[in-house]
Write a structure and sequence with these properties.
CATH superfamily: Phosphorylase Kinase, domain 1
Radius of gyration: 16 Å
Number of helices: 3
Number of strands: 5
Strand content: 25-35%
Strand order of the largest sheet: 1-2-3-5-4
Distance between the termini: 36 Å
CATH architecture: 2-Layer Sandwich
Number of domains: 1
CATH class: Alpha Beta
């Protein structure tokens, strides 16, 4: 079920990448809603789908947003919709596009420069 989402009058496909998942941005025309959303689907590439299915990545991420996503001590992207089918490995996750104006994305590895140089690669 889509969570309290305003009516969409137009959708345009934005930037997209492939890997362990298919990831992309949908540009939206809404009245009072977000101008874009971030969408994750099962990979269209065979190797990505196999890896994702073996690890149940889409199912796990879908469950994360349904459960723990709201309980974290940090802000996670807002969940608009998610559904996953364990047997087929197919899933869809529609979340807040963190490229929205006023959104700050944090990269934890950048704050760990001295630790990383001594111990690990992030």
């Amino acid at each position: 079920m889509l969570t309290d989402f305003p009516e969409v009058s137009a959708i345009t496909s934005g930037p997209r990448t492939e890997g362990t998942t298919s990831r992309g941005v949908l540009e939206l025309e809404t009245l009072g809603g977000p101008r874009s959303v971030f969408v994750k689907l099962a990979s269209q590439e065979f190797a990505g789908r196999v890896f994702s299915n073996l690890e149940e990545l889409g199912v796990r991420e879908s469950r994360f947003y349904q459960g723990l996503g709201n309980e974290l001590p940090i802000t996670a992207p807002a969940l608009y919709y998610t559904d996953a089918h364990v047997a087929s490995g197919r899933f869809v996750i529609i979340i807040e596009d963190l490229r929205q104006p006023g959104t700050r994305v944090s990269y934890p590895c950048r704050g760990l420069q001295s630790y990383r140089s001594r111990n690990h690669h992030c």
